[in-house]
Amino acid sequence: MLSAYLTMAALLFCIGLYGALAKRSTIIVLLSIELMLGAVNLNLVAFAKYGAAPALTGQIFALFTIAVAAAEVAVGIALAIALFRARGASRADEYNEMRR
Amino acid sequence: MTTIYSQFAWLIPLLPLVAFLIITALGRSARAGALLIGLVGHLMALMLAVLIFLEQLGPGQRDFRQQLTWLRIGDLPLTIGIEVTHLTALMLLVVAIVSVLVNLYALGYMRSDPRISVFFGYLALFSFAMLGLVLSDNLLTLYIFWELVGVCSFLLIGFWFTKPAARAAAYKAFIVTRVGDIGLLLAILLLYWHMPEHALDFNSIQNVFQSGQGTAVMESGTVTLIALLLFAGAAGKSGQFPLHVWLPDAMEGPTPISALIHAATMVAAGVFLLARTYDLLLASPEAMLVIACVGAFTALFAATIALVQRDIKRVLAYSTISQLGYMMMALGLGAMGAAMFHLVTHAFFKALLFLGAGSVIQAVRTQDIHQMGGLGPRMKLTAWTFGIGALALAGLPPLSGFWSKDAILAAALHEQPALFAVGLAAALLTALYMARLFFLVFGGKRSEPGPVFESPGVMTGPMVALAGLSLLAGLIELPWSGAGRLSLWLTGSEAAHHGTALVMIVTTAIGALGIYLGWLIYGKGVVNRTALSERVPWLVRWVERGYDVDAAYRVLLVIPLQAAGRGLQRGPEALIGETVRRFGSAALWAGRLGTRLQSGQVQAYGLLAALGLLLLLVAVMGRGWW
User: Fold this and answer.
1) Bridge partners of B136?
2) What sections of the protein cross the membrane (chain A) (predicted)?
3) Chain A contact for B112, CB < 8 A?
4) pTM score, whole prediction
5) By the CB < 8 Å criterion, does B162 face chain A?
6) Which residue range(s) make up the domain with B341?
């Protein structure tokens, strides 16, 4: 039973990773990060239910992660909008300030 | 035995060192201050040297030693120490006297030089090194000071470094003496290897060889080798053939330097070194013979060159080489007392001659003796003092040079009659070239126009003082006064041979003959002075070039070495250079690749991080598999 959840989570994580690294649109990148977080949450809950030592801690952790992720998305969207306003661009590969 | 002043002997080298440091700290603008400090430092050193000398004159053995540990290598301590013996006290006195007088003289001679304070700083540094060399109680510290006087010599020869000739002469002096110094270093290493308990101090060397253990602790071949290597060092410093070539060129330096370093003190350091390690030399008759022969040859060889030089200072330089040859010959003949005696008298009269030459050069602004002439009536004091120095060098009684040369020749007659003949021939030439110099410079008529003035008192004063010393220094050892007082005092044993009436008469006659000949040729003009150079011009020119020793060095050493250097540059250097260049360009390419990675794209960084993680995971997993 556990392996099915884990496979699902791994698939989700890989799709999210691909999106975060390869997509040009900032919004899609943010969505992909959410996807990866979702995969992690799925793992946490799966281990909490079917792991070697089942405990409620995992599910509580998942709740925390969702709350933090919501806050992170708020900040991320705000940053993306601010950048779009300042630079007139929403594509991730146009942001190369780290080079300078 | 109480030694009151000798306990403070360590102050003697330190006083000039302090003077040097203060002068250097004051900088170039403080002219009067620098001169005053240099003079005061040297005067204090002189006073102390006089007190120590007088103390050492007292009855009995009053040697004084003081050591402090410098380094500890394993359980072997290296020490710095001073040793006051009769020999070092005498040498200290000579060095201190000449230093002070030359300092005074330089006040006048260098007065218009913009870098006069630098000059006085170097002078003080040299005095520190030379006095330290004299006081050193072991070979290691002596070697350090030995190199330090070499550096000072280099700095002062090249003092007028805007002149290319002065620069070249400074390099030459440094490099040629370095050849000898390698010998000295090897000798020290060999002694370190073979001496009991690795002792390098002169006292231990003396004890080992005086008690006859020398052959017990090392083979006689080793002793000979060490003695010859020591002599190589001494030959480099003291300008013995074939390492004499730097000394005539060193005359590019200011004249006070020629008087102090290249006539009186530093060039005598070689003789002093051999006198200091004399018991070792005595253990090797072969080395003694070599030293005597090289010394005698140098004495005659340099005297012939001095006969045809045109530059007043080069005549005196070759004369110095010749007289140092006398000292070496005396050392090789076992007459250490006579050698030191000649060292002392020579220091005085040769310094005097150089100071006189400087006075003349300043008056007529040339060094070519053929452009001088007729200076006697206009520069009376210089002429008189120079004359005294010349007579002392020529060895006429009762001047100092007579007694010391007589002591050496008496020893030669007793030990090696062949060397006595060589010494006598050199003495004749000495008298001849000094007469030539004196009559060409001071006699005859003034050929060049322009007024000539006597030098100021600050320059003639030291000359008069040195003239007095040249007159009287012979009295420290008369042939009949208690039979060799100086030798007895220096070595603790009677001199082996005393001047006989025969030697005295012969040397006096030879000296007088040389001067008379010189007067006939260059003074009165009875003999045509150009007869020889018209008859065999190539011979005269050959001798004037110093028998082409320089050219021989050029052909035998310089050109092959340069060719070898160029060959090395083309072959291995090209290979190594190419390898190094390849490495350099590889690093450059790696760098460029690195900068390309830094694109500033977050996603690229993320991708790389993910790949890295993957690599790490694979590595960790893979380790489990294997």
Assistant:
1) B82
2) 6-21, 28-48, 60-84
3) no
4) 0.77
5) no
6) 305-529
Prediction ipTM score: 0.80
Helix axes of B336-364 and B400-415: crossing angle, nearest 10 degrees? 140
B610 at interface of A, judged by CB pairs closer than 8 A: yes
Co-location of B123 and B5 in the same domain: yes
Chain B CA closest to residue A25:
B603
Number of Cα atoms under 13 Å in the Cβ half of residue B180: 31
Compute φ and ψ for B81, nearest 5 degrees: -155, 165
B626: pLDDT confidence band, cut at 50, 70 and 90? Answer: low
Tell me the chain A residues in contact with residue B600 when contact means C-beta distances shorter than 8 Å: 96-100
Residue B544 lies in a domain: no
Chain A residue numbers with beta carbons less than 8 Å from the beta carbon of B605 are 98
DSSP conformation letters of A53-80: S--SHHHHHHHHHHHHHHHHHHHHHHHH
Query: Is B418 contained in some domain?
Result: yes
Q: Is B602 on the interface with A (CB under 8 A)?
A: yes
The amino acid sitting at B370 is H
Q: B497, B513, B529 — which closes off a domain?
A: B529
Residue B242, both tokens: 């074939």
Residues B501 and B603 in one domain: no
Is B585 in the same domain as B485? no
Number of domains observed in the structure of chain B: 3
Contacts A96 to B, Cβ<8 Å: 599-601
Which chain A positions have a beta carbon within 8 Å of B596's beta carbon?
none
Q: For residue A98, which residues of chain B lie inside 8 Å, CB to CB?
A: 600-602, 605
Among B504, B529, B554, which residue terminates a domain? B529
CA dist., res. B42 & res. B262, Å (int): 19
Tell whether B583 and B514 lie within a shared domain.
Answer: no
CA distance B321 to B350: 11
The per-residue pLDDT for range B445-469, each reduced to its tens digit, is 777 667 777 788 888 888 899 898 8
Ramachandran angles phi, psi of B58, nearest 5°: -60, 170
pLDDT in single tens digits along all 100 residues of chain A: 889 999 999 999 999 999 998 888 888 989 999 999 999 999 999 999 988 888 888 899 999 999 999 999 999 999 888 888 887 777 777 777 666 5
CB contact under 8 A, A92 and B602: yes
pLDDT bucket at B483, cuts 50 / 70 / 90: very low
B578 and B437 assigned to the same domain: no
B495 shares its domain with B587: no
Domains of chain A, with CATH numbers?
Answer: 2-99 (1.10.287.3510)
- A21 has a chain B CB within 8 A of its CB: yes
Percent of chain B scored above 70 by pLDDT?
A: 94
- Render pLDDT for B163-194 as a digit per residue (tens, 0 to 9): 888 999 999 999 899 988 999 999 999 888 88
Are residue B381 and residue B512 in the same domain, yes or no? yes
